[in-house]
Design a protein that fits this description.
The chain is of the alpha+beta class. It has nine helices and eleven strands.
Length: about 475
Amino acid sequence: MFRISVSVSLQNFSSHRILIRMSHSIGAEKYATWSKEELIAKLLNYETGQQTQCDSISTTTVTSMSCDTDTTSKKRKKNPRPFDMSKYSKRHIAFKLAYFGWNYHGFAANVDEQKFPTIEGHLHSALMSSKMITDPAKCNFSKCGRTDKGVSSLGQVIALDIRSNLPRDSPYVLPIISADDNSSSNKQDDVKTEPKQIEEIPYIETLNRLLPDDIRIIAWAPVNPDFNARHDCRFRHYKYFFVKRNLNIDLMRDAANRFLGTHDFRNFCKIDGAKQIDNFERTILHLGIDLVQDQQNFTTTEEFYVFDLKGTAFLWHQVRCMMAILFLVGQKLEDPSIVDVLLDIKKTPAKPIYNMASELPLVLYDCQYDNVKWCYGRDDNMLNTLSKLYKHIYEQWYIHTTKSLLFSTLLNDLGGISLKKFIHPGQELQNIPTQFEQTLKELASSEINTPSDNLSSIITGGKELRVRNYVKLANQYTDSFIQ
């Protein structure tokens, strides 16, 4: 067998050599009559053409092999496939969020978010970027409260229709009607398959990655399709923090207790002419002025108090106006009975002139609802989500507490200096009725309740206002206004 196969191979090889010789002889006869110059030109033309053809073939081959994938990927990067929201179901959910408002122009969005950023504007941007919604105006959006510029919240609530991972036949998603056949797209297929365990979109983690550091989603909750964050709220819980200084807390409590119950608060708000509100009655469910218990982390010796307030609803600037009157009472510029006078519309038919309390210490602390169960992350990752939230808030606390520490250090150093150190030997200070045994802090604090040259310092929870010849609120009206 081996000899036979070798002989066959030799036979084939010999035949191949014969064919080559025949082709060479035919070619030789063809070019035998050509001149030397013609042969050289033919040879050069042949070599040039062959090289060009080979280069073209190799380049085309390499390019097609190496660049097809790159071209496809580049096309995909340049022209991404548009997101098709119709492939997903939607559900109505609520979000609980916290934000620190001093960097924002209120909660409600406005037309110029670049110049006047808002909380709602950032929320809409994050929701759009994550493909949770397609249009803020068409997602059934509602909010519990419309906080003002500079006001913060630790428990604001919003609700909206949002993209979901749940199947269309789930009882938790919103029904969708097909435009083609006017039939419900929630139909189940005839083929029965085993139910799959589907995890919902990680709403908290996804949105918090896109939101600024001072806006955080805390929790979310599935709610009924007709749920409205504003109208379904049982009560709002506000807190207003302030430093005691020389304020008389007992007088402030006396005045605050007069707010309890249902009253006409038109003299404790800012009238919005565009809304044409004709009902100014609001109900205060609970209030108190209490010492802030957890003060070990504070970097000052000042005592902090909090005005704790719960009500079914509030008018525009109502809490800040209430707090402004309490500050006047605490400074003994007004009697606690001024609250009764201002709540009596017959005695005080128009709002007197006074300055609102600062917005910085005000916080919408919580919003309460019936039958809303908050989720603080997906079941498989909830503890990790909560841990990240806590660490993030801790980082922000650390930054602001460090800044506060620097101010407190300088404040305490200055406040502890005796006034004697500012007086040189033999120097006389005239027209300064003070005790030089005092510290600078004691001097500054005493000026709050000691008017000089008919000037009074008005506490607003922020910067103090200097008012000349303070006029009591009840005296701002002529007899013709008082019945």
